[in-house]
Structures are given as C-alpha cells and as structure tokens.
Design a protein that fits this description.
168 residues; mainly alpha; rod-shaped
Length: 168
Amino acid sequence: MSLITPDFGLLFWMTLIFGIVFFILAKFGFPVLTDMVRKRQERIEKSLQDAREIEARMLTWKEEQAQMVEKTRREQSAILKEATETKARIVADAKAQARAEADKILAEAKLQIAAEKESALRDVRREVALLGVQVAEKVLRHELSDESSQRAFLDQLVDEATETPIHS
C-alpha cells in the first residue's frame, strides 16, 4: 500500500466515514454553529443599531446643549445690557438729583445772601438816618440856641407847609 496512490477500498472507507461525519456535522454541528453565528450577527447588528441610536441621541443632546449655551449667552448679554442701562439710569438720576440739590442749596444761599444784604442795608440806612438825625439835632441846637432864631425857623416851616400843595 502506497500512500501516494491509495487503494479502492481505502478510498471507499474514507469516503464513507467522511460522509457519516459530514452527515453528523450537518445534522447536529452545523445548525448549532450557524445558529451561534446568526445569534452573534444579530447581537452585533443590535449593538450597531444601539450605537447608532446612542449617536443620534448624542447629536440631539449636543444640539440641545449648543442651543442652551446660546440661549444662556443671549440671556447673559441681555442681563448685562439691562444692568448697564440701569447703572447709567441710576448715575444719571443721581447726577440730576445732585444738580437739583446743588441748585436748591445755591438758591437758598442766594436768598440768604440777599436777605442778609437787605438786613445789612437796613442797618446801614438806620445808622445813616440816626447819624443824620443826630447831626441835624446838633446843627439845630446850635442854630436855634436863642429864642428869636427858633421863632424865625418855625415861621419858615409854616410858610413852606402852606405853600406846598397836599397830595391825597
């Protein structure tokens, strides 16, 4: 028997054994293997489908996150703008109030200065009038020291009073 050229009997038995093993494998082994391959393929496909869904969700979440970030930025910008406007308004109001207070204080000061000026002028006029009266009194005493000059002065006053018309 040679290994290179096998006998017809050996070929027959090899073919028969191969057929039996193939039949057993085809009946019991291949279905199990194909079922395992099919289950593995289904599991892989399901994993791929889940991965696609997760990726889609991730994209949706990223979009939502980007929208939230943009919305937050807009709100932040609006809040900052409003705060700036409020600050400017408060500063303007404070300046206006300070101006009004300054104007009020200045007006009160002017009124007080005018009142003090008027009071001072009255005091000066009173002093001038008193001095004038005192000077006139001294002059009249000196001039009217004798009785004849007093009578002449009284006659002169009566004449002036009668000549001057009285206005009603």
